[in-house]
User: Fold these one by one.
Assistant:
Number 1:
Amino acid sequence: MISKNNQTLLNVQNLHANTQDTEILKGINLTVNHGEIHAIMGLNGSGKSTFAKVLAGHPDYIVTQGNIQFEQQDLLALPPEERAQAGVFLAFQYPIEIPGVANSQFLRLAYNTVQSKRGNDELDPLEFDDFVREKMKLLEMNPDFLDRSVNEGFSGGEKKRNEILQMALLEPKLGILDETDSGLDIDALKIVAKGVNHLRNEQNAIILITHYQRLLDHIVPDYVHVMEAGRIIKTGGKELALELEKHGYDWLHNDQQKNAGVSV
Amino acid sequence: MNESKNIDYLTCLFKSLPAQSNSSTFQDTLPEDPQLWIKQLRAQAIDEAGQLKWPTNKDEEWRFTDISPLTRLPFKPAQAGYVPDLSEVRPFFIEEMVNRLVFVNGFFAPELSSITHENQLIIGNLDTLATSHAHVISAHLGQYAQFRQNLFTALNTAFLHDGAIIIAPRNTVVDQPIHLLFVATQAETTHYPRCLIVGDDNSQMTVVEDYVALQADKSSAYITNSVTELKLSANAQIQHIRLQRENLNAFHLANCAVSLDHASRYETISISLGAKISRYNLNVSLNAKAAECAIDGLALITDGQLADTHTCIDHVKPNCTSHQQHKCIVDNDAHAVFNGKIIVRPNAQKTNSSQSSRNLLLSNKAQIDTKPQLEIFADDVKCAHGATVGQLDKDEIFYLKSRGLSELAARNLLTYAFGAEILNNIPIPSLKHTLEQTVLNQTQSH
Ligand SMILES: Nc1ncnc2c1ncn2[C@@H]1O[C@H](COP(=O)(O)OP(=O)(O)O)[C@@H](O)[C@H]1O
Ligand SMILES: [Mg+2]
């Protein structure tokens, strides 16, 4: 959905990041406008999750160069919770389990924290219960998940749905979905895709990190980027994902050699 | 600690032994005394206690827990007679629990107790039941908690005067959980609570064993020396919840011995919150095939408290299962000790045993000593164990912050969760809620 009067939501310039003295991100440039969907693809280990975590502010990664503009704000100057409050949301590739905390308690705490920071009203437990059940219907989640501990004993697919549920509650401006499709069977994938499509509008944007074309059949991207060794090495439209599916990532190298300088 | 002090202390205790005193319960001995067996048991225990030494840090079993402060407190045994107002004790009652035995300073308080005579359940205090049910009680009392090597069990038995008795006959399913409430009210005394819980074949019950002190005595020291014996026959099941919420100057020394027969199941959750120094020894013997136990523990301590839990799970026979999860949350300069011994005897093939000890330090002055101790003499067994000591997990903190929670809110939630995980299995909603509030209050910094 590329709208006519596009405004820049996220602008990443020359982003370099280290962990444990190893450089993982080596100069990422990416611009995301309101209303757009961007897919990031690439082999395992190319730095996709690292990029996602740097956007969310994970303390394991140190940004050594570059900057990230999120609307009018310098994103790198904000601690993770303020990024979340400002509207950045990361659906984790590996959501953690928190035994001992009821999912409902966690979801309400997150929702109310973000709402109050945005100057909106908080919901009491009963109001929240109605609200969250509505959102769960959309994702065809069993309400029993509210009473269980956060992600504890959830299957891979259930954890991913719980991530999207959080996204639905927190209504971010930028949703970053890190391999939300992996571990989902085709029915679950369709439900999650339906949920994501339902959440998107002209005011927000989505970055989809995925290995597979199949998610992109259901959530159609405006742009497809390919990452390799900490950089975006190629950007194209949705047809790029189809090409990659057909030819594999090696094809890109041959292709790149042939068309050096064309992409990015 | 010096030897002469030790002797002084024990001498002092012996002088106050009721057998030599004018305690009314044991005074008018008739020639055909129906409680003679109790006196014999006590006499043996007095003999044994006389042979045993006061434990010091040189004893392996007491390496981390220095109880020498107790020797400076030659507390006399508590006296019978005082019964607080119902209104003072009521706050400790548990809403759902209609079966309740209350003991004040170790003495039964019928005015505060309530018993619904359900099924064939035998429930009451030792003093009352010792005559009418002498046969069944004498078959069990003093049979599981060995006073031969344990000074505190020996002393408890030597001072035995009353106690809680619960006997579920064959096939009895007790729907209502039973509350055993031990209230301390007297400063500078020692009291000797005692429990005997027997589940005959196919019986089922839930028991809450609860140690509290009345508000007025918040600043006063006293000693609780308790012994609980628990025996399950074939296919019997029990949920045993143990709460130690003594006042913060108290010394709590407790022994619990559990004997499990064929395919019986023992589930326990023990929560240690109070006392200046507490020591809980839990010994579980899986004495017949297919017995099972699930043992959860939580110590939540702060400000100079010491909480020591020593468990011994003894797989005597094949095909038994034991699962143990022990957690400590230690704040300020408190000190927690966990020693988890698991014995798998040569005959105990196909044993399935797991143990996890997880510890959270909330301050850099907090201390934890955790020691798994596996003694495995059979080869075809599955034994897993693990111990962690540390601060909160940074990925967990990040996960919560990425959902908008502040660092502090994230830390508080995770600390609470660490403790609440143990409370999740408590089957009594109001008690679970009360304890969750306690954990919440004690884990939240501002
Ligand atoms: N916390 C970390 N510590 C050390 N190495 C890391 C860490 N996170 C990522 N890496 C390394 O960075 C590289 C990129 O990883 P990642 O971002 O997870 O890739 P992707 O998501 O594309 O599979 C890998 O070589 C990985 O081993
Ligand atoms: Mg990844």
Note: Residues 85 and 117 of chain A are 7 Å apart (CA to CA).
Number 2:
Amino acid sequence: MPKPCANCATNTAAIVRPKDRSALCKPCFFTIFETEIHHTITSTNLFARGERIAIGASGGKDSTVLASVLKTLNERYDYGVDLILLSIDEGIKGYRDDSLETVKQNAKEYGMELTILGYRELYGWTMDQVVEQVGKKGNCTYCGVFRRQALDRGAARLGVKHVVTGHNADDVAETVLMNLLRGDLPRLSRTTSIVTSTPSAASSTDPNSHTNIKRSKPLKYAYEKEIVLYALHKNLTYFSTECIYSPEAFRGSARALIKNLERVRPSAILDVVRSGEDMAKLCPGSDEGCGGACSNSVPVAEEEEGGCGSSNGRTAGGEMAGVEKQLAQNEVAAETGLEIEITSNGTNGTKTNAVPVVNGKKGKKNKGQSQPARKAVPKQVMGQCKKCGYLSSQEVCKACTLLDGLNKNRPKNSIEVGYDEAQEDAKLNDAISEVKKLEVGP
Amino acid sequence: MRAYDCQDCGGAAFPEIHHHQQPWLPFRYSTVDYQNILSVSAGTMPGKHVDDGASEPCRRCKENTAVLVVRSEPLCRDCFTRYVHTKAVKRLESFRVRNAALDHQRKFLLALSFGVSSVTLLHVLDHLLQTQRGKTGRTGFAVDVVFVEVPGATVLKDGTLAEAQKAYPDFGYASLPLHDIFLQTSDPGLSSLVPNLIPEDSSSPSEKLTSLIASLTSATARADVISTLTTRLIVEHAKATGCEGILWGDSTTKLAEKTLSETAKGRGFSLPWRTSDGDSPLGLTFNYPLRDVLKKELVSAKQASMSSKNTTIDDLMRNYFEEVETNFPSIVSNVVRTTGKLETPSVPASKSRCDLCSMPVLDGRFGIHGWGGDQQDGSEVLSVQTGPKLCYGCTRSIPQNTTG
Ligand SMILES: [Zn+2]
Ligand SMILES: [Zn+2]
Ligand SMILES: [Zn+2]
Ligand SMILES: [Zn+2]
Ligand SMILES: [Zn+2]
């Protein structure tokens, strides 16, 4: 006997909802899925009437569903927002062709304006040119760094102040566990917030400055599996992009854990997100104990927010083995007397966060109490890149550092091949390792 | 949930609570040679054993042959024992004789699960007390030991507690059935969680416990509620017997597991209270003297085969960290250090607490509704605030019927 829908009790159930395993008919599943996203948007006051919002569209399932649902909700609830699609073309021959076709088709279906911006326009270099210049080995660094800024730079070009991305609950939960594993509380607290922004541009006189772009993730509480079901049953056209970059070990490890947790208890993904939000309030230096989970804006710079195939790249130096080695060295150092404090940023390190502590000051501690020293995590100092104005913890942001290296070495014309290749290579590698140093920390 | 007959002893056991496993120290451990506990575990440590053929000398004493490698240092048995003792005693600085008033004996409660960590801690404490007595003629503190009997988990069949008592006679011992929690606390909130309770104490504590556990629908929920009640019973017992704090046997690895599994259960808000040394909102201090020792340094933990239906979140994390610990021990320690950096929220005395775990719930954020990730469209659900008040994580284990 067919099972009736748990919601309307009229239709036959066709879908078992991954979030709570309830059996629903198709129309009820659609409505519930959409209503939850509406609830996310309204309870966080995400949109303002009249706002122009760019959807970061990759052609993948997340951003396709995001575009479809936002269009539906904007009409149903009259948000009065102007939705456009923004795609980034890295300039890798063949790689984006199919997904950009998908985005173009979506633009037609949803009647949305579409802008495709290439790395060439944004940075003056396509990824193919970068690879040609630096070789296969170092290009991942460039790709990741460029990718993280591309949407903001693109939005700035269009004069759009708000970009929404397709990050889902699985991505956020994964990021929470990943940052617990690598001990990065500041990043944990930033990435659980629904809105991350690059503020501080009040002082900026350039209206096109990309330092004041608000970024948000309306699908923050939506399960990846439900996004797939929604796309499937709505017959949405999307392109399954296999990420061409293998996820770093920490993310891979956290992702596997999330999948297992979901199997044991379906609500676990949502529960991790909730924990992450609550822990953000307990992070040292969070604003009045809210960590941005309740205030609507948390500064985020060259962040990786998770989600393969979306707007993110990978962070170099995130490998577990490397981190393990560094931590083990620090442990030895601590035992032999010179304690190098392992702070949150052992992996992505800004210099401000690595505080060498000489033994005797902080190293020997806690006479007569078993309380572990609760060290304040120095708040990451966010400034602006003096070249491009992008929010950065360094004087010059990673993208500009890399571009510098590239531009210095750009062949004047294609015939000029007489330069000392080895020497140029070395210079480029220097530039890369500069950036790596920023990421890995001293 | 139905109890089943344990294959080892024939006693009744709940499926997810293994015969020799207690919820707050959940790894398998069977035969314990108390006096030689450290040497035993040194001899059975997994993974990084020194090859039998190679007779590398001990890095510390440079005399004996190393039997195992601890954080890349080959150590002999004696030096390893000293290593664990040192790590633990370092955490017990405040337990020194010089900190003890002459007219008042400080007393702590050791939560013994018969897992290798708490047994090791028992040994370490005994050793420490003997050393203190030998040096000064008195001790800085006294220790009581408590064991909680979880229904069906018949660890005591071999008279293990009596054995421990024989081996370490200086401690006071108590064994309490878990259902005593309904006697030890007058908290009406706790009883309100028992489904279909006939008014006014007509059911016995053990009936209450059975009916509460039977009402839970998943292995994770059962394990979670049992371990929460166990903690509360230990706390109540400590208070009733005049202990100023509780000594938990948790290793680094266990604390890392706890960090991730409580996160996964939606209890991120209470992490600092569950993992750090010092004042607990439950009204006394929590101490984790083995927090700097990895589990693999204590025991060869045997992988248990688990059916996925009865797998709990705690099981999952235990397996996960068993793996991580093998190759990345420092990452395990770093997770615990990271949790230690979370700020403990200050709790006004009047704050309302969760009926199950008794943790303070700030801003009245009870239940699973009324936040951005709410599965229902919020507002109308919030108004119904009858029945027990549970924190987010406890609501996941004991779902509340919101419609009335
Ligand atoms: Zn229906
Ligand atoms: Zn790359
Ligand atoms: Zn820049
Ligand atoms: Zn030795
Ligand atoms: Zn609770």
Note: Residues 367 and 395 of chain B are 6 Å apart (CA to CA).
